[in-house]
Every structure is written in structure tokens, then in C-alpha cells.
Amino acid sequence: MFASLKGRFLLAASLLFICPLVMAHDLVILNQEDIDNGYQHVDTHAVPFQLVDVPELNAQIPVKPMLNDPETGMTVDKLIYEAGFTNTWHTHNCAHGFYVLDGILNTHKGDFGPGEFIWFPEGELMFHGATEDNAVTALFITNKPFDIHYPQTEQKAE
């Protein structure tokens, strides 16, 4: 019994010492001067996902916009491809990349897991999405304004 009490005491004491160090995090608040100088901050835990319609696929993609640079058009978004979703063959006039946070990103160049980054050149015909069994969460980064073209849809329209 004494060992159990001693162990509990040591655990409680260590938590009292360690937790404030781990939890001590000053909230970041940018002032107007920071914002005027181009700083941006997004708490992705507080911002809700927006559903982006993809009518060509009859789908919606949950996205959290994080950065949209007005000078270059560069964007950074946090997105989720739900299990089984694939953004079918398409092209972009912008280069773009994915930094995988969770799950597996399935692409025409292979599968990429958490901590991996893949960059796609402008104009390449590609597909990417989640695996059949698991969603994928990733940071999506473009080098200039985002656009998307589905050759199969555009050929039907002609």
C-alpha cells in the first residue's frame, strides 16, 4: 500500500511540475501593424471547415483556408479527402503540393503518408484522393491562384 501511495504522490507531483510547462502557451495575437506587414495567423482548431463544391464530381471537399497571398495568389489550405474519395484525372495551371497530416494520400505517383510531402508541377495530368478505407488530412499548397480542369468534363461540353 505504501508503494502505491508513494507512486501516486510522485505521479501527482510530477504532473504539477510538468503540466504547467507543457500547457504554458501564450495565445498569439497579431496587432494591426503585424497584419499590415503581411503576418497571418489561423488557429485551425477554432476555424470550422468550409465545404467546397466540386460539381464535376458531384462532391464536396472540407477545407480550412489558411493563407491566400493577394500578391502571388499562393494558397495554403487544410483539407480532408473522405475515405473512398478521388479527385479524378485533372490538371491545374498552378503547381501544388500536399503535406500529409493523417491518413494516406493516394495519387498517380504513389501513396504518401503522414509527414510526407509531394509537389506536382503545373499542367500535369493527375489524380489524388484518399484510400478506400481511410480519410486523408493534408495541407494543400499552391504557388499561384488555384484552378482545376477536368479534361473528361470539358470534352463533353464541346
Describe the 3D structure.
The chain has 158 residues and is an alpha+beta fold. The protein has a domain at 48-157: Sandwich (Jelly Rolls), CATH 2.60.120.10. It is 22% helix and 35% strand. It has helices spanning 2-23, 32-36, 151-157, and strands at residues 50-54, 59-68, 75-81, 86-90, 96-102, 105-107, 110-112, 117-120, 126-129, 136-142. The strands form two sheets. Strands 1-2-3-10-5-8 form a six-stranded antiparallel β-sheet, with no helix packed on it. Strands 4-9-6-7 form a four-stranded antiparallel β-sheet, with no helix packed on it. A hairpin with a 2-residue loop joins β6 (105-107) and β7 (110-112). The chain is globular. The termini are far apart.
Q: Average pLDDT value?
A: 85
Give the full name of the CATH homologous superfamily of one domain.
Jelly Rolls
- CATH topology of one domain, by name, is Jelly Rolls
Q: Which sheet architecture does the biggest sheet show?
A: 6 strands, antiparallel
Helix percent reads 10-25%
Index terms:
alpha+beta; four-stranded antiparallel beta sheet; Jelly Rolls; 158 residues; 3 helices; globular; six-stranded antiparallel beta sheet; 35% strand; disordered N terminus
